[in-house]
Amino acid sequence: MARPTPLSGFPEWLPDGRVVEQHVLDTLRRTFELHGFAGIETRAVEPLDQLLRKGETSKEVYVLRRLQEEDGAEADRSGQLGLHFDLTVPFARYVLENAGHLAFPFQRYQIQKVWRGERPQDGRFREFVQADIDVVGAGDLPYHYEVDLP
User: Fold this and answer.
1) Is the dihedral of CA 76, 80, 82, 87 positive or negative?
2) Is the entire prediction scored with pTM above 0.90?
3) CATH no. for 38-68+75-136
4) What does the domain layout of the chain look like in residue ranges?
């Protein structure tokens, strides 16, 4: 049997490395929650037109398509989905869609995988875990938030 070639930029941790990664992520979660941030998770895909809304992006987006796509559908971006390259666009959509159910100012943390179609270099990956915290208010925030993480 031929030995498979690993995909560059897509890490797979051995058990010892995964234990370390989980410890770091658990520490981040506990710290964020200690400071009043609520954890959320958003879907991995967004409409391509939303991901590229601010014009050209320096991030290469992985686009999803069905293997048995109808002819001509590739040229039309409407309805196409892409994997998010950071957590900003998904979070903005999440707040808009759930604004009636959120208490503002809303403090959230999010720890999820993101995908960037960039050429991998030393220490940079195409798939990686990103950790974000944000405070969103309806209008002006009454005070400035600062979070000092250990």
Assistant:
1) positive
2) no
3) 3.30.930.10
4) 38-68+75-136
